[in-house]
Structures are given as structure tokens and as C-alpha cells.
Amino acid sequence: MYVLKNCRLVPELTEDYNSEFADIVIEGQRIVDITGPEKACCSAERVFDAEGCTVMPGMFDLHTHISYTGFGDLHDGGRSEYKILLDTIKHVTDCLNAGFTTLRDAGGKPGLCASVRDAIDDGSLVGPDIKVCGRLMSPTELGNKANKWADETIHEIDSSDSIRKGVREEVRDGADYIKYVASGAVTLKGSNPKIPIATYEEVKKVVEEAAFKGRYVAAHCHDTDSILLCLKAGVYTIEHASLLNDACMEILKEGRQFIVPTISCTGAKLASGEGKPAYAAYMANDTAKQILEGAVKSMVRASEDGLIVGLGTDTGMPNIFHGNNAMELVYRKNLGGLQDAEILKQATIYSALISGEEEDKGTVKSGKLADLIVVDGKPDKDVSCLLDGIKMVIKRGRVVRA
Ligand SMILES: [Zn+2]
Q1: Which pTM value belongs to this model?
Q2: What is the mean pLDDT of each successive set of 10 residues along the chain, which is 402 residues long?
Q3: Is 64 helix (H, G, I), strand (E, B) or coil?
Q4: Which chain residues have CB less than 5 Å from ligand 1, an ion?
Q5: How far, in Å, from the CA of 395 to the mean position of ligand 1?
Q6: Looking at the domain that runs over 2-57+362-401, which CATH code has it been given?
Q7: Which of 55, 23, 39 is nearest to 344 (CA)?
Q8: d(Cα 56, Cα 363) in Å, to the nearest integer?
Q9: What is the pLDDT of residue 295?
Q10: 59-325 to CATH, choices 3.50.4.10, 3.30.365.10, 3.30.70.141, 3.20.20.140
């Protein structure tokens, strides 16, 4: 047992405790008590002093690619298999040190992401909790064979039988959930993100086969038609969700399906006015502008209408580097004008809820897992202090960065 004393807490991220300052008692993997300052210190074996810094729950990144580097060649570029493994371990370590204690990998090198997850789960590697989808499942589509990484990480499925076989193969190979590409992509040559690439029947079949294996489906969707089609077919999370309309909002407001925007993949270029990002090199200028600006507008609309919005980044895609995940929070404030406290909820309790882990994670509460970060600053007043203000990271009670 140890005590993290002199913690400043954020009311929106704290349950069952009402003062600004507290001592947090941690035993094993969990928070066992939150008390008034100086009340818990005497009986503890060890005491860490947070010195009045903010203590908040570890953050979630629900859309990242742990085996991709962030460089233009993604995970290929002549790297050996050993180098790809070592890079992936470094990527998840960088995310953990940046305060992200839970990740959801949204597609990558077959087998690798599941192996890294398992090594963390069995304690042989220190890292964030990770959920994986294995390969990206997609209808046959332009660009899917455009280069080595696409060929290796995209699993094409079309007919009913191949969808069933494909889902079962991914589950066999360790998928916690199924990722399906339902609209064109911005990274693949020839693909058009403004149109669906799957039919309603296909998406419904993917959802059914995934449900049969106890998995949900997350769908890559940029355009309105594909978002709508996926929501109607029962997809659980809409990734990117760039062009929401009234009909999409109506379904989302029922509260059973969620969006995971990834503003990081567009934010840097939009913020600097440099035009479209390098990864969107294949897109026509007006398409790029529409998708990039639409993604911010849709995220803001969903948040302002009170939806539970998840936090994703697309880290690992070109120019989005592991360890910089907190930039997503800064973009949501600077480009979207969202309130700091709301953005923090998206990164913690809302994402925990979407991930089905709200009983254990997402707030500072006695009984929950001690996934905590100590931040020099007040992220509820300005989220940018999360970029370089992380002083300590605790994962399941273990101090992993101090
Ligand atoms: Zn992605």
C-alpha cells in the first residue's frame, strides 16, 4: 500500500469525493481510499508527494496504430521484422509515458499488436492496456494493394462466406473487436473518402458475424452516407466520422453507438494553414478541405449536442507520432473551441464508457484501477499542460514513470 499525497483533483473526473485536494491510497492495482489531505499518510509504507499537482485518470486513445511509425512509409520502409517489433514496443512505451494508459489499436501488422498486448497483460512488458482488431477488414477497393503495408494489413472480404471466414480468422488471431473500412480512405491512392465502399448488406453481415463471436464492429467512415449506413447496420463505433448530418445525429442521440473522431490527422495542417496533410496527397484539394474541416465541425456538433464523444488520434499515420497523443486534446480546444473539462472527459470517462471499462477506469474513484497521471498544471483550465507537464504515470497501481 502507498499514498499519493497532496493531490489536486478535477471535480468532473472524480467520483465520491468533493474537495479540491486529497490523499489517494493505493493498494495492489486499485485505489482503496480517497481522504482529506494528511489523513492517510501515517499508516502507509510509502508516500509520494504530488505537491499540489493535478491528479487525473489515465487517458485513452481509442484510435491509434501502434505498429506504424508516423513516418510516410508507415510500418514498411525496409524495416526488419525485429525492428518493427522493437519500434512497436517503443511506441506503446511513449504513449504510456505521455499519460495514455489504455490504447485501442485500429489496425496494423498481423499478429504483432496482439502479441504486444498479451506481453503487457501477462506482465512481461510494461505498457498501456491495449485492445486490438488485427487486420483492417475491407471490401475489395482501389488502393488496397497499392503498397506493401496496405497489402499486408488490409483483409479483403466481400461475399457472405468470406465475411464469415474473415471475421473468424481475425478473432482466431486475437482480435478484441472488428475493424471494417466502410468508406473510401484518404491515404490510399485512388480511394475516395466521400463515397461508401460497402453496401448495407455487407456491413450488416460483418456486424452479425462479429456479434456471433462476441465482438463489436468499429467502422472507418468519412462521408455521410457510409456513416448512416453503418449506424443503421449496427456498427458500434464510427471512426473519424467526418461528415455527420441530422439523420446521423438522430441515431447517435439514442446513445447506443458512438463516434471516435481523430482530429490529430488533420489538425496540424489546418492549424498552420499549410493546406492538406501529406497523407492526403492523393486527394483532390476540395475533397481534402471538405473532409478535414468537416471532421472538426462534426466533432464540435456532436459534443455541443451532448453526445458521448470518444478520443482517437490516428497516431502512427504519417506525421502523427506516438507520445504526442495529447495533441488531440489541444486540437479539440484550439480548432473546435471545446471546453477543457469536456475534452478531459472525452479522453477519460467517455472513452472508458465506449470501451466498456467504466466500472474500472475513467475517473478517480475508490475501488477503480489506479491508472493515474500527475500533471504539473491545471488541465481542466488548459489541456495544453498535458503536452509536457506529465510528472508521474501510474498504471494499475504501479508507478511506471516518475
Ligand atoms: Zn486509423
Answers
A1: 0.94
A2: 95 95 96 85 77 97 93 67 93 98 94 97 97 96 81 91 97 97 77 84 98 98 96 98 97 98 74 50 65 91 97 89 95 94 98 98 98 98 97 97 90
A3: strand
A4: 106, 314
A5: 25
A6: 2.30.40.10
A7: 55
A8: 7
A9: 92
A10: 3.20.20.140
